[in-house]
Amino acid sequence: KKELRKRIALLNTQHADSTMRKLQSANILTALEAHPAFRAANTVLLYHSLNDEVDTHEFIQKWNNKKRILLPVVVGDDLELRIYTGPENMSICSVYGIEEPTGEAFTDYAAIDFIVVPGVAFDAKGNRLGRGKGYYDRYFAERKTVKLAGCAYGCQITDKLPVDAWGIRMNLLCSESGIVWTDGEKNF
To answer: Model-level pTM greater than 0.85?
Structure first.
């Protein structure tokens, strides 16, 4: 997995300049927001992107007044969720240098309708390879959440990933070419 992360990271840094990344991110998120499950969602867990991830910063702003947007905060070995209330209530405080919302923890997990997940890589069956710390895997294992959407650049999608027993598959995978994979309407 470590070698695969390195290989994908190299491809990711080589595949496009910042202007192209912004355009690709916009295309990915346009495909995501057109999906009926996203449209129907009231409470959405997103992520505040790092430089090598699909850029969600403008997307968060766009949907903030239309949906309740949650963002994860790294607390020790776990993710804590907080409601996004605007850029003025964000601070850089995690191990990854990610901007995170300040304020109280959100714990009404049953209210979450849709989750958008970052990843280093995804495969054609919706499996996800994260950064290796297991934050999302632990979060999903405890909550058995459905309606998980992965967002990735095409260079991050591979035929098959090594899968751990605790790994959770995405229900939907979006890339700049649109919806790449879905598990069908059973969960949507």
So the answer is: yes
